[in-house]
Amino acid sequence: MKxxxxxxxxxSSHSYxxxxxxxxxxxxxxxxxxxxxxxxxxxxxxxxEMVSALLEPTxxxxxxxxxxxxxxxMGAYIALAMLDRLxxxxxxxxxxxxxxxAAAPHSRVLQHHAELPQKEFLEWVANRGGISAEVLAEPQLxxxxxPILRADIxxxxxxxxxxxxxxxxxxxxxxxxxxxxxxxxxxxxADCFVRAPEVHLFDGGHxxxxxxxxxxxxxxx
Length: 221
Known about the structure:
alpha/beta
């Protein structure tokens, strides 16, 4: 089983290294333009743009073997929108879909954190665990990562789709109990699928999945 994964805001192909380590399945985490191995490409500012850019590598990665689609936070919206593209193309569909650390995209109050002044923006990201104190202490690293984070967070916050899908594979929603995502917004993922998804609550905040590695691995595949 392959795990095709999409990173959270500011992430890259290394984002899930701790989850992939000692897991019996192959992880393939794809870099959107402007991230990781694609750092030299221009950043994209919408989820549909990212999906278009990642469609071909996704099709290559999924060819010929069963696979799972996984994404955390921004990556959850990429995974959902990628599923829609795969359905449109008549491509092989994932054995299961796992959407982690994200509110249902049609249920949220529209927010504009990506437009905050630098100090407030970086404080908001740091409070969610999305940037380390080491990075914040280095102006050159802040200069590198701030545009990436702003583009990704802006894309994730702007994404909205409440369509109900006929996808009949299992859907799992993973949420942190101490995340700032309202439980009602997490449960609203049920509106997006004919088959009700399973919702899993974990102790921890936005990046709970790195505190619950074995449990998350078992859910994924």
